[in-house]
Design brief:
With 94 residues, the protein is mainly alpha-helical. The chain folds into two domains: 1-52, no CATH class; 54-94, no CATH class. The protein is 29% helix and 6% strand. It has helices spanning 12-20, 31-35, 39-44, 67-73, and strands at 4-6, 26-28. The chain has a two-stranded parallel sheet with strand order 1-2. The longest helix is centred in the N-terminal third of the chain and has 9 residues, at 12-20. The relative contact order is 0.16.
Length: 94
Amino acid sequence: MALIGVGNLRNENDLNKALDSGFSEFIAVGCASMLNKDLGILLNENRGNEIMEEIDPDSPEKYCWPEPLWKIGLQGISYFPPVKGKHVERMDDV
């Protein structure tokens, strides 16, 4: 049975640690893919340093999100990516 690792995988280092742990055969990314529509390309081309980890509220065009999703994302809800300059206690911080 395949095991999929999820949660708190926001950058290249997190993804590599999860894969190298030996506990997961696959990993799933939510927030990282919401912020980086080209996440697969960035990883494949060894451009992990370009992976965004926070929503930039001044650049909605980067994300191609529909307006309702954009408004919700900026509220700092815990299951969305963090908003740049806005600290919200996240479930994984507790």
